[in-house]
Amino acid sequence: MKVALLAHDRFPIIPPFSGGLESFTWHLARGLRRRGMDVVVFAAPGSDPRLGIEELDVQPLVLSDAARNDVAMPPEAQVRETFSYMQVMRAFGNRPDIDVVHNNSLHFLPIVMSAAIPQPMVTTLHTPVTPWLEPALRLTPTAHTVAVSDSVAQLWSTVTPARVIRNGVDPHEWRPGPGGDALVWSGRIVPEKAPHVAALIASKAGRRLRIAGPIADRQYFESKLEPLLDEHITYVGHLDTEQLRELAGHSAASLVTPAWEEPYGLVAAEAMACGTPVLAVARGGLSEIVRFPGGLTSQPGVSEAETVAGAAAMLPLVVAMDRARVRRYALENCSLEATVDAYADLYRELVHA
Predict the structure, then answer these.
(1) pLDDT tens, residue by residue, 311-340
(2) Which intervals hold domain Glycosyltransferase subfamily 4-like N-terminal (predicted)?
């Protein structure tokens, strides 16, 4: 079987990953190849050559001065992205070797064009409802959809009946660590991930905190997070997987502090696979994967000050958790192998329908 994986065209599929979607696509591609499947990927140029996969090429966007001077000209990145997906979807008509298309993009066009390609297509919903994908799915009631958590499936339930296949982590990649004294926070530095809340929790609890991840929103970093940095609360940069594993494995606990309905919470699963307990704000899919006692704090609607105070008070219980038990829980509930197997079964189901 040959599977085409569609990511978005902003970031290549290569570590260090820009976000969870890129990590998911990279690990899924590798897992499918281990199961004997051929994989074709569309993403930004420069995907990891070690994956040994075919990249779908598209022609670059060419706009005349007249087109650029149109008063209705939208942002060029939006035009380029739409043009890229249009090319890719049209290309599938000339690729009888591809058996199934797995859409992981956040763009509407693959969904609305899915009926025009000969292959069955499944779309994984990686986010809460968006104004682009919602109308596209309403126009395509026969679309096959997967949600990364029960929470995401519920958010989309009035739009599409999504089957749930949770994300997972590789336990050989995220190995157990000895722990340490400092806390860790990792992820994209953006308002919806709210690392500044983690900084406030650590300060309230009198703990050191190391923050890792790409600065995707410079204004947020400079206005909300940077003023909280000092000798105890430090930003350590955008780390690769090996560096993140070392950081997580040598931490007392991982803080996960979303200010939105977190679709899944891959960083929580990664930390737990290292044996590092997680203290998480109970938003979205995090409530489904951080289940062991003492790992969840404030529900939506609780003020930031109450979240910080409650989390700081709960932290000693979390830090005291048995690391072997945390690791065992992750292996049983956050397995990448189970994720890849579920998608492989779904592809076969779609091809033979």
Answers:
(1) 999 999 999 999 999 999 999 999 999 999
(2) 19-172
What does the alpha-carbon distance between residue 82 and residue 221 come to, in Å, rounded to a whole number? Answer: 30
Tokens standing for residue 241: 């997987």
Radius of gyration in angstroms for the set of CA atoms belonging to the chain, rounded to a whole number: 21
Q: In what order do the strands lie in the sheet with 278-281?
A: 233-237, 209-212, 183-186, 253-256, 278-281, 296-297
pLDDT class of 293 with cuts at 50, 70, 90: low
**101-144 pLDDT, tens digit each:** 999 998 999 999 999 999 999 999 999 999 999 999 999 999 99
Is 183-333 CATH 3.10.50.40? no
State which CATH number among 3.40.50.2000, 3.65.10.10, 3.40.50.880, 3.10.450.50 fits the domain covering 2-168+335-351: 3.40.50.2000
Q: Quote the percentage of the chain above a pLDDT of 70.
A: 99
Say how far apart CA 185 and CA 194 lie, in whole Å. 10
Q: Which part of the chain is CATH 3.40.50.2000?
A: 2-168+335-351, 183-333
- State pLDDT tens for residues 38-96: 999 988 788 888 888 788 778 888 999 999 999 999 999 899 989 999 999 999 999 99
